[in-house]
């Protein structure tokens, strides 16, 4: 605020004492209003009535109208921006926002505790201290503060990239625009959940009902919809709260060395933390905490769907590390799903991308677990038989993990006399091809392949998806039109499309058509792993595709690989190996691949290396601060290509820290532990020694 004050003092024609008095009054109003906000939203202990707050707020606003040069970004009047956005921008998370693995009972919770001790090389009888927090049912968000000032807010997105919703998050009163107190790092990322309390949700829906607007299904949907508003003024009208649950980036300062203490520190800096959070000594106390919160779940002023347990000590978290996209040191113990009784009116069959035919139950609509459920997957005929399910039955429905609707049980004493058995189809409901069921498999499949329009559509959707070929603008609706009109019948046809043809389609136009043609052209340059994933081979997900690319390096080697050779690849067992071999033995699939290559789809071969023979195998690096010649993301990829592990925090196991300008707590920790530290110039020399030249 000092720069604005200085300009005001220099440019004002008023007497100096009057200028200074206005400046001091603005500073006092800032401090007082921030304090009242903190007492109301964080401490839940307001010390003045709303009328007092409103009077001070309007006084500040009046001064700022008269002297706009005194308006600062952290002013209490600046929570709501003036102009709506046209679209949200994408944000790359400097540190991924990972998801959590789930457990659903005490045995699984104890098994998690045993796994933790095993990795830490501790006996099963040892006690591990855990931090416990209710799992709020909202939307994860990230807040970035620089020198105490909120500079960016983003959604979790896919964990690596989210959307910049800074203007909307600024409207949430429990989010401080400027941190309170002292001692916070120069750069601090705070992560938490944006949610809508029950009372606010009920009031919002009542208002919508009175005005004839569409009602929100549950508080989570209401929170998500509120954050997706392009006009922050609309978001500001929604009763949202933000509760922090962790930190991400910490630079230019330090934080406590345990999760529970960090949350308490964040509260001192102005953040709302959950009053139910606790610290316990062992897994049995975790289970007792879980039961206690489960018993009071319905009385809480917000929705929760479980408890999150985290190993409290950060050093132990570093030792535990991560597996796939989840930390080994945290788990979500989900609450039992709410259950309701309804009637199964019919069973229909849907055809998926791989030809799997899935029975889908059509139910009398029932509100369960926060949503209205009218359709439910029955998975396969084995499940139908296990349940003893018949059309017309009364069934118990729940949302497994509070997410997926599921039939749990048939209420047999309510079965009507005209109940009908569920009979599996012998021919595909889409293309009339024969349906077959391989011995030992539960799933029946259509044999039509790309002849089947349902499989064709799903194959195109998968091929164009973000993690596959990432063809921007080619979504499910457009693919349905292209397939239905016969404009595409195999994957390579996408690259034969012409702008003129696309522009003639409903809701396309010339600009949209040209944009899609450009996106198709750009997508041709891809990676081997993405291409493999895009083909839709059964059981070959993103991670498996990466492993295959690293293990074989090129398409020819993979296509000729035997089941035995595939079994040697990480995370690939005999069933997946068989699927891969069968896929490449299919002549239609080979022709599709040849056609895609003929249309210009290309990638660089991956050099196959034994990970143990890479020059930096067995080392762990940490990147911190601002790197000028190579970004931290690029540096991470280069180190990984040399066999190094790249961690997000410094521990005794760290081999080296690469520190650029602005390096803070990680640099201090490295110096404290005696870990080797190099600057960016030395890092580039290091890379050069392994044949990697940075421009």
UniProtKB/TrEMBL annotation:
Gene Ontology MF terms: ligase activity
InterPro entries the UniProt entry points to: BRCT_dom, BRCT_dom_sf, DisA/LigA_HHH, DNA_ligase, DNA_ligase_AS, DNA_ligase_CS, DNAligase_adenylation, DNAligase_N
Keyword field: DNA damage, DNA repair, DNA replication, Ligase, Magnesium, Manganese, Metal-binding, NAD, Zinc
Cofactor(s) recorded in Swiss-Prot or TrEMBL: Mg(2+); Mn(2+)
Binding locations of NAD(+): 50-54, 99-100, 133, 156, 193, 310, 334
Catalytic activities: NAD(+) + (deoxyribonucleotide)n-3'-hydroxyl + 5'-phospho-(deoxyribonucleotide)m = (deoxyribonucleotide)n+m + AMP + beta-nicotinamide D-nucleotide
The EC number(s) this enzyme carries: 6.5.1.2
Catalytic residues as annotated in Swiss-Prot or TrEMBL: 135 (n6-amp-lysine intermediate)
Pfam families per the UniProt record, alphabetical: BRCT, DNA_ligase_aden, DNA_ligase_ZBD, HHH_2, HHH_5, OB_DNA_ligase
UniProt domain BRCT: residue ranges: 611-681
Positions contributing to Zn(2+) binding: 428, 431, 452
Biological function: DNA ligase that catalyzes the formation of phosphodiester linkages between 5'-phosphoryl and 3'-hydroxyl groups in double-stranded DNA using NAD as a coenzyme and as the energy source for the reaction. It is essential for DNA replication and repair of damaged DNA.
UniProt family annotation: Belongs to the NAD-dependent DNA ligase family. LigA subfamily.
Official protein name in the record: DNA ligase
Species this chain originates from: Litoribacillus peritrichatus
